[in-house]
Amino acid sequence: MIQLEAVTKVYRMGRLEVPALQGVDLRVEAHEFVAIMGPSGSGKSTLMNIIGCLDRLTTGRYVLAGTDVSRMSDNELAEVRNREIGFVFQTFNLLPRMTALRNVELPLIYNGVAKRERRERALEAMRTVGLENRALHRPNELSGGQRQRVAIARALINNPSIILADEPTGNLDSKTGAEIMAVFQHLNDRGVTIILVTHEHDIAQCALRTVAIRDGLASRDEPVIDRRVLAGGVPA
Amino acid sequence: MNVTEGFRQSFETISHNKLRTFLTMLGMNIGVGSVIAVMAIGLMSRGAVMRGIESIGSSLLWGRPNRAAYPDRVEPMQMRPADLEALGDLAGTDAWITPLLRANYAVGRLGWQQAASVFGVWPAYAIVWARETAAGRFLGEEDVDRRQRVVVLGRNISRALFDSESAALGGTVTIGGRDFLVVGVMAAKERSPVDDSSDDETCYVPFEILSGMTDWTSTGGPRVPAIHFKVKDLSDLDGLAARVERYLASAHGKVGGEPRFVVRSAEESIQTTNKVFDIVTTVITLIAGISLVVGGIGIMNIMLVTVTERTREIGIRKALGARRRDILGQFLIESVIICLIGGGLGIVLGVGVTAVVSIVRGWEYLLPWFAVAVGLVVSISIGLFFGIYPAVKAARLDPVVALTKE
Question: What is the CATH architecture of A2-223?
């Protein structure tokens, strides 16, 4: 599903060149649930931006769902993001003036889906995260956990190849965080590929595999032993 | 992203920021409103002036010194009584003719004096300029023949000196220290929409009498400043004009390569008036147009603020798959909508002002539809022109940078 080969990323700050990634190799197969871990400054955010097609690598190769996206234009990357990637952010990143349903619809708008179908699919996605009765609420009328569920529904809406979750529990209390992780586990059980970026060990323990990033390199790659399996979060 | 969706999202944003949107569109509102009002008022006042000129008739001609032929500050040479006589023969029975000599005198009665413009004319003046008396009669041939000191008072002069128009008839007034018998009082004349002037302060006396009262030493003898004609048959107009021109050219020659005297017609003066109105309307419209530019800059300013404020939103949209053109379209639609609403209200404002002016001045209400169309087109253009830079700025944002912006 994801194949990174010797990926480097160098930031230019004036005359200074700052290497953020120094040759990362990473493969993620379909249906995997991978946690990417690392302290701040390790390059994990950069890696996440590259995997999410928000940023371009400096050298190396990135193949996403069978397509080499390493040298794509901005617009092509936008289309890849739209179809192949579902983002879940730490700060939810919902548009405040739109209802939850409209927020969930947004990726479909950029995908040119007709209004009626958008509505149906968005409601379906809201149902998947157990929030169909909050569809017409605005984000500020929802709790943190509910907002993150809306964000997950939005990430799911286009049936992307991967869900990319960047510290999805960072702004939530541990109980709500556990509920959100339960949603991810549930989705993964249903076959959704998930890449989770976190610096919290017990959150990473919810995944099936952890990759540690240190100094711009994938330093440790191992399956999760003693996985935290969470129940609930999603209606049956 | 399709256009309907773009409009929907723009309305969501605009309605969220009502006060700001209102203040921003105020600039467009005033700009478009004033442009439309200026164009419409120009059109209406021109119509009023034209009707004034046309009521006199286009059969009018007048000969006068050609000021353009002389250097600045040099008094042009004027026609002589002999010219008047010759031109009278020339016009024959084809046209009415009158000389015109203007002077300012105090018109007095019983020790009261009133400043007035005194015109020395022939009886044909009333026909030539389509003027009527409210009481009594205008100057007659026998007044001229017998060198009678008679006067026809302007309405306001009559009102200043006499109780009523009928009381004025047969009364005596002094002009330049001489007694004149009042034989008539002019009917009121509509004020000119251009300079607010009226002939209601003008008194008419026989040309020969006024000429006799004038000191001609500086010109070396009596002069005739202007001669007016009105042809009886409109088809004679050009022929008479040519004959008068030929006579004046042959009798007086040229000065500095230009004829000493020129012949003008009402037709020409309509054209000139049209030209003057065109220029004035254009200039004022341009000045009003400046407010559109100012309004446009206001829109650009607010759109730039919006883009900065909504950087994170732009980042989110980009992360969800918005292409550059989606973001560009969204912000362009937003600025065009603001301009269109502002311009639409501006059209209402302009039409309202025009209606009020037409009622107050008593002009026929004319709304230039093309001005309304121009207002709409200009609104959209300004929305696009001043919206494009902020929209491009938004579209070019790097999604990573935009997403991390607080």
Answer: 3-Layer(aba) Sandwich (3.40)
